[in-house]
Specification:
By secondary structure, the chain is α+β, with helices and mostly antiparallel strands. It contains twelve helices and 18 strands.
Length: 500
């Protein structure tokens, strides 16, 4: 009985000791996760500007993803090794030059460096370009990078030339590429500012955005990876902890400030920790890009979150195309318009020629929103507008100016909202030219039928009969007159003979 009591007592003591030891560890993890989302801006900022000491990394930059405006930079143009954030350029070049659904036959990818991460491609395996891009950006597969480079350009060296040519177009003046994966080479380097410029361009590609923001991807069954010989791991998880869907992940960024979009991580001994991140504010108005180079494994995450929160707390962005054109209709007079339905007044709506944004401190952006008198609108309507006009016709331009600056902040095209009919033109009947040798006169009446026709015939008959009677009377009178004259001449001759 005593032994049982002792055993129970020892068990209880061990249980309490275990709880005492484990509980602080669990508590520490929870507290650390909460602390990673809190920032003392009185300590981290000065005059609204982020201090250099706010980030552990000495090579960092924050860029607005809509405007390209730099909100913070520290040694942003100093050259450092990129490690696997190199794959951002690899992904962009492939997207711009390849069909996602085309199949790639895996050859000799030659990625044998110790510690190089691979997705396990096998010689002769068939995968689509899209599958390889997920393996490239989520699992950071160096073998996927080499396979895509060879498929796109024929060799790693030629693909590196394509990467450098694209970097020059973007304006990455402090960058040079010699491979598509970022495994260390002293001739491959970049800057925080260049990586921000690259990501600014890449995020405009919707497929790039979709891939880098994907948390996990299930690779397909292939001729080499079958149900019996599956991929390892079976699901490719994004190495970017900022977009993790695990509640235990201390560095996931998805709270009241906004949420992470993703992008790419990197690490080599020479480069240390590298991270390019992007996040969208909770109200959807802002999007920012962050870059940290040569950071500690933990510091690159905390630095990135600090920069996200700083950008969303101290800055804001206004979408001018939405703000200035929302529910705006402009009316103008139209010449030669039909008067019905008020056609003389044409309604026009605005279509922005381009998306345009302004990024500034939160107070300055709110001032623009609250002070519409700071915006001047100048209409350039094609004059005079003459009907007819069809719905959808371009009829002019509108420029918007902030604080009467010389340069417009937004240009829009004016589009006709409805048809405008012209006044009908009355055309006189053409004068007929008589044909040669044709007598001009009243044309003979057309044969008529019915009562009117019969009355005409009767009257014509009566008129003819009267004419005949008149002729007969005249003939008879003439005959009598002739007979009388003959008689008279006979008597006169007799008297004359008697006198002699």
């Amino acid at each position: 009985m005593i032994n049982k009591k002792r055993i129970i007592s020892v068990a209880i003591l061990i249980l309490f000791l275990a709880l005492f030891i484990v509980a602080p560890i669990q508590h520490t993890a929870t507290v650390y996760a909460a602390e990673s989302k809190e920032r003392d801006w009185d300590k981290y900022t000065s005059g609204g500007k982020l201090r250099d000491s706010a980030t552990e990394s000495d090579y960092a930059v924050i860029m607005d993803a809509h405007t390209g405006e730099v909100l913070f930079e520290e040694n942003a143009k100093h050259k450092r090794y990129p490690a696997s954030i190199t794959k951002i350029m690899t992904c962009l070049v492939v997207l711009e030059n390849c069909d996602l659904q085309q199949y790639v036959t895996i050859g000799n990818v030659n990625v044998n460096e110790e510690g190089a991460k691979k997705i396990g491609l096998r010689r002769g395996e068939l995968l689509t370009v899209e599958d390889l891009l997920y393996g490239l950006m989520l699992e950071s597969g160096n073998d996927a990078a080499a396979a895509l480079a060879i498929y796109t350009a024929g060799s790693v060296a030629e693909f590196s030339d394509m990467m450098n040519a694209r970097a020059e177009e973007i304006g990455m003046t402090g960058t040079n590429y010699v491979n598509p994966h970022g495994l260390h080479d002293s001739k491959q380097y970049t800057t925080a500012m260049d990586m921000a410029k690259l990501t600014y361009v890449a995020l405009k590609n919707p497929t790039f955005r979709r891939i880098v923001s994907t948390f996990e991807y299930t690779p397909p069954v292939t001729n080499e990876h079958t149900i019996d010989k599956p991929w390892y791991p079976k699901v490719w998880e994004n190495s970017n902890r900022l977009i993790s869907n695990k509640s235990s992940e201390a560095f996931s960024f998805n709270d009241s400030n906004g949420h992470a979009i993703g992008i790419k991580t990197g690490y080599t001994r020479a480069a240390e920790g590298t991270l390019v991140g992007a996040a969208e504010s909770s109200d959807g108005t802002q999007e920012v890009i962050t870059v940290v180079l040569y950071a500690s494994p933990k510091g690159k995450w905390s630095d990135t979150i600090t920069m996200f929160m700083y950008a969303f707390d101290f800055y804001d962005t206004i979408n001018l195309a939405k703000h200035l054109t929302k529910d705006v209709l402009i009316t103008t007079h139209v010449e030669n318009a039909a008067a019905s339905l008020d056609y003389e007044n044409l309604e026009m709506y605005l279509v922005p020629d381009q998306q345009n944004y302004i990024t500034d401190t939160t107070g300055m952006i709110q001032s623009i929103i609250d002070s519409p008198d700071r915006i001047t609108r100048v209409e350039r309507i094609d004059t005079p507008l003459v009907a007819p006009i069809s719905k959808g016709d371009e009829v002019g331009k509108v420029d918007f100016y902030l604080d009467n600056d010389a340069e417009s902040i937004l240009t829009c095209t004016l589009i006709a909202a409805h048809d405008v009919e012209a006044i009908p033109v009355v055309t006189p009947e053409p004068t007929q030219t008589p044909e040669p040798n044709k007598v001009i006169g009243t044309p003979p009446p057309e044969e008529t039928t019915g009562l009117v026709g019969y009355i005409g015939y009767i009257l014509a008959g009566i008129a003819g009969l009267l004419l005949i009677i008149a002729l007969l009377v005249m003939i008879r009178r003439k005959a009598k007159y002739h007979q009388y004259n003959v008689s008279a001449r006979g008597k006169h001759s007799s008297n004359r003979n008697n006198t002699f």
